[in-house]
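R.M. (postdoc): so does anyone remember the format we settled on? I'll just put the structure tokens first.
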């Protein structure tokens, strides 16, 4: 064994042995010297005390010098040691009193709210929720979901009363200004048709037919022929004049907020309100509504939309997607993220403002953590038992010895120190007795 491997207690015991041999030599040289006798007496006591404490400490972990009786106490009592360790951990470190005491001192809900309110936490959680939403969309069967959504949309539309639907459309047109835009587009389209030569020919045909209908008796026919002969009645000029007047009227109707446009819209709203309350109109609108709703290709439209969204989410290079699909799917994703963020913040605000809800959440957290800690009490005991049972005797000795090694060394050193002191005291008492 190298000198540097010796601990302080071993060096102290070796020093006591050297002092003992030195004192013995001095005593043999000066057999009648009181100092030599006292020195030898103290050295003997120090050596015996050091050896006794070395034997006692060593006997805890192994058999010193092979002595078999009541030695190697820890290896022989390892099960009792394991049971005591488990009991100490469960009853002292994880006792119900300490667990509940620590939980009472913790403000669980403020800690949770503070953590949830951090921007990093919000971004991470909302990102995961959006990812879950996207995965949910990807896992859905397009045909099944299309049929289900189409059925729900049809059911909702069929429950709408025609009158209410008309009123909603009218109100929407007025609030958004789409009524003026729609009328202007209709007038522009009518003006385009009115300016065509076919329109003038149609007007000429109508005037001629009207003239024939009004001149069925011979006298009227004679007068009409005379008027046409002297150019008093010219159907072509009349048709051209009507065409110009019609174009002028349509131009005014196309002009936004013009008097004619306002009058036409008011007439439209008045007639629409009257039609909504008419029983015959109600029946007609109901039939038209049912026919239109059942003929709408909702399944195909919804299915194509869902499939395009799935293709967009699955595409690695989203730039290759059609621009319209990319834009729509991107808007859907951004809207989903916006909804999740808004609901996340709304939930935090709701919890912060509702004291009853705070108490419910706090009690729930306390109950969950307390139950988990109590289950951990048993689990920790099982873990400690398994870990200590797997250790060899040497590993178990090191586990205990390494934790209290300085104290054991001082116990051994104190044996020599205290032994020499007691030896000195006894020698003085003996000298006094003599």
């Amino acid at each position: 064994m190298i000198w540097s491997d010796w601990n302080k207690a071993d060096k102290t015991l070796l020093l006591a042995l050297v002092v003992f041999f030195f004192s013995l030599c001095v005593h043999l040289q000066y057999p009648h010297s009181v100092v030599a006798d006292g020195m030898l007496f103290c050295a003997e006591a120090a050596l015996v005390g050091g050896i006794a404490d070395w034997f006692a400490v060593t006997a805890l972990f192994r058999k010193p010098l092979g002595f078999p009786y009541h030695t190697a106490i820890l290896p022989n009592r390892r099960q009792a040691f394991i049971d005591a360790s488990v009991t100490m951990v469960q009853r002292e470190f994880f006792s119900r009193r300490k667990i509940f005491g620590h939980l009472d001192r913790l403000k669980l809900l403020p800690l949770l709210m503070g953590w949830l309110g951090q921007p990093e936490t919000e971004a991470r959680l909302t990102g995961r929720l959006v990812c879950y939403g996207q995965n949910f969309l990807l896992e859905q069967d397009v045909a099944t979901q299309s049929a289900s959504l189409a059925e729900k949309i049809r059911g909702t539309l069929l429950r709408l009363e025609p009158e209410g639907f008309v009123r909603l459309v009218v109100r929407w047109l007025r609030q958004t200004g789409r009524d003026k835009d729609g009328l202007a587009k209709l007038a522009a389209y009518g003006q385009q048709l009115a300016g065509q030569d076919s329109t003038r020919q149609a007007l000429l045909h109508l005037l001629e037919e009207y003239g024939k209908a009004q001149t069925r008796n011979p006298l009227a026919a004679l007068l009409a022929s005379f008027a046409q002969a002297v150019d008093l009645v010219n159907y072509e000029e009349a048709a051209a004049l009507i065409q110009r007047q019609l174009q002028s009227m349509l131009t005014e109707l196309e002009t936004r907020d013009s008097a004619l446009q306002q009058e036409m819209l008011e007439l439209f709203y008045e007639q629409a309100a009257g039609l909504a309350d008419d029983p015959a109109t109600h029946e007609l609108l109901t039939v038209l509504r049912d026919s239109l709703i059942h003929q709408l290709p909702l399944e195909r439209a919804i299915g194509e939309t869902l499939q395009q969204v799935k293709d967009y989410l699955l595409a690695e290079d989203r730039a290759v997607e059609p621009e319209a699909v990319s834009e729509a799917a991107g808007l859907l994703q951004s809207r989903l993220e916006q909804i999740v963020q808004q609901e996340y913040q709304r939930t935090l605000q709701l919890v912060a403002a509702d004291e009853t809800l705070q108490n419910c959440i706090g009690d729930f957290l306390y109950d969950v953590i307390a139950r988990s800690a109590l289950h951990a009490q048993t689990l920790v005991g099982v873990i400690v038992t398994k870990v200590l049972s797997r250790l060899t005797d040497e590993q178990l000795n090191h586990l205990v010895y390494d934790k209290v090694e300085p104290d054991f060394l001082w116990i051994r050193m104190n044996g020599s120190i205290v032994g020499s002191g007691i030896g000195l005291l006894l020698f003085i008492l003996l000298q006094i007795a003599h």
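R.M.: ...and that's the designed sequence above, right after the tokens. Also worth knowing: The longest helix spans residues 393-433. The radius of gyration is 53 Å.
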